[in-house]
Amino acid sequence: ETTESKNFIEQEIDKDLREGVYDHVCTRFPPEPNGYLHIGHAKSILLNYGLAKKYNGEFHMRFDDTNPTKERMEFVESIKEDIKWLGADWEDHLYFASDYFEQMYECAVKLIKKGKAYVCDLTPDEIREYRGTLTEPGKESPYRNRSVEENLELFENMKNGVYKDGEKVLRAKIDMASPNINMRDPILYRVAHMTHHNTGDKWCIYPMYDFAHPIEDAVEKITHSICTLEFEDHRPLYDWVVRECEFDHGPRQIEFAKLYLTNVVTGKRYIKKLVEEGIVDGWDDPRLVSIAALRRRGFTPESIKMFVDLCGVSKAQSSVDYAMLEYCIREDLKLKRPRMMAVLDPVKLVIDNYPEGEVEYLEADNNLENPELGKRKVPFCRELYIEREDFMEEPPKKYFRLFPGNEVRLMNAYFVTCTGCEKDEDGNVTVVHCTYDPETKCGSGFTGRKVKGTIHWVPAPYAVEAKVRLYENLIDEEKGVYNKEDGSLNLNPNSLQTRKCFVEPNFQGAKAYDSFQFVRQGYFCVDARDSRPDALVFNRIVSLKSSFKL
Ligand code: ATP
Ligand code: MG
Ligand code: MG
């Protein structure tokens, strides 16, 4: 812990504690329940939760549900599930911003009474026009100088449903000439005759994010309100709201750069389209990077934590390679999961000198690098399946697997020497033949000779048929994410490949989310939606080969 360097947020927190600005740390994760969480949100969750843990503070889970248009209860549940899965424990600190509507209303009344807010009748278009630009100051609204009494009455009318949507708004009275456009009399409240999932029809006015958020933070006594960079320009307004509403506790906003993955789609709009067009099979399709999708693909919370830690926290916008996420899951599963045999593209291997009808049960290590995972027995017999690419009739140089005359090791079993093959009319290999040497049994201590190739196999009569799904990026990486002409996504037509395969009988009983290494093929996870005990479906989480270097 002592040698570990601190990120800039931790340095700011240390400073605040040292200077007595705060005597404790309280962070929050405030999602809007309008969609599924993705890997970017995981960064924010683990960052906020991690800081609370590190400083012995509190972590609040708060649904920022102040905008009834897009919010749904369905998302509240999925967000909770994802955050729990990631291991961020909010204990009894679960909040809904809509529970503070009354307090927000009172804050607005207070601002009106102080002459700091007014009811404005300009249309949305006019408000935009009056706001000015980066180079031009804004123009004051003709309603800006209404009396406190008039404003109080009009605001109460707004609340009581006297006006239609868009007819009137409440605005902060700050400075129409401010170089920061966010400070040019921003809107605090709007009229919206809508049913809210939590408060029903109680309210027909709803607070804007820039007004609501600082109040939520102040009410909960959040100390460090961590958000992404696009809110940096809103910080003066955040501070203005906290100050003018006269909270005795002032939270502090700190911004960091969003997490972006190169050539990966995270935008809700795009994913929604992919779901609706049936290109992916839902928000948790294993090719997506929603937390639900990563979980279904077979990522673990530990791998995501490792990834987020490796990414670090900074103010500089950057994009991270997906290969880094793959590196993290390989590292996490390497010692934790059994390494078993599965043949993804099978061709039959017949051992002609092995007695017909006989079977022996060979012992195999579950994970050579981790003896704690124990051993298992694999049936071995005359007819096996091997990978089609592990045999070549006419091999190129440096091919050490099966070809006529060559001897290889069958993993966990014997040495076999290839004697030839059978082919169909089209020249496709249908059966490979070999003989085995009983002296060379694995574990017998045989040292008589060495072979260069080792291949895996499954016993044909005992193998279990299953389905595997092999994935590539949804996006055609050569072309980049978006089509230059129409802004649509450049999709990779090969992002999903489904295959029939054979796995060793020890996979029987594998349950949803169980994951394994298929030797030489990668890490695979039992699909939580489509797998059945008698029809297993595996998703490839990641192959074994890495393009990522730390
Ligand atoms: P999206 O539109 O991608 O869902 P959002 O900002 O609308 O993102 P919110 O529900 O408002 O989603 O986000 C909750 C929290 O997650 C916010 O504090 C936000 O800053 C943070 N967050 C969102 N996207 C990222 C990201 N890519 N990297 C880090 N934090 C993020
Ligand atoms: Mg969101
Ligand atoms: Mg948002």
UniProtKB/TrEMBL annotation:
Q: What is its EC number?
A: 6.1.1.18
Q: Which SUPFAM superfamilies match?
A: Nucleotidylyl transferase, Ribosomal protein L25-like
Can you tell which superkingdom this protein's organism belongs to?
Bacteria
Instruction: Enumerate the Pfam families for this protein.
Output: tRNA-synt_1c (PF00749), tRNA-synt_1c_C (PF03950), tRNA-synt_1c_C2 (PF20974)
List, alphabetically, the InterPro entries matched.
Answer: aa-tRNA-synth_I_CS (IPR001412), Gln-tRNA-synth (IPR004514), Gln/Glu-tRNA_Ligase (IPR050132), Glu/Gln-tRNA-synth (IPR000924), Glu/Gln-tRNA-synth_Ib_cat-dom (IPR020058), Glu/Gln-tRNA-synth_Ib_codon-bd (IPR020059), Glu_tRNA_lig_a-bdl (IPR020061), Rbsml_bL25/Gln-tRNA_synth_N (IPR020056)
Glutamyl/glutaminyl-tRNA synthetase class Ib anti-codon binding domain location is: 338-437
In this protein, which residues make up the domain named Glutamyl/glutaminyl-tRNA synthetase class Ib catalytic?
25-334
Where the record annotates domain tRNA synthetases class I (E and Q) anti-codon binding, the positions are 454-527
- Example GO molecular function term? ligase activity
Uppermost EC category: ligase
Reaction it catalyzes: tRNA(Gln) + L-glutamine + ATP = L-glutaminyl-tRNA(Gln) + AMP + diphosphate
The answer to whether UniProt assigns keyword Protein biosynthesis to this entry is yes
Q: Which UniProt keywords apply?
A: Aminoacyl-tRNA synthetase, ATP-binding, Cytoplasm, Ligase, Nucleotide-binding, Protein biosynthesis
Family of this protein: Belongs to the class-I aminoacyl-tRNA synthetase family.
Protein known as: Glutamine--tRNA ligase
Organism name: Sellimonas caecigallum
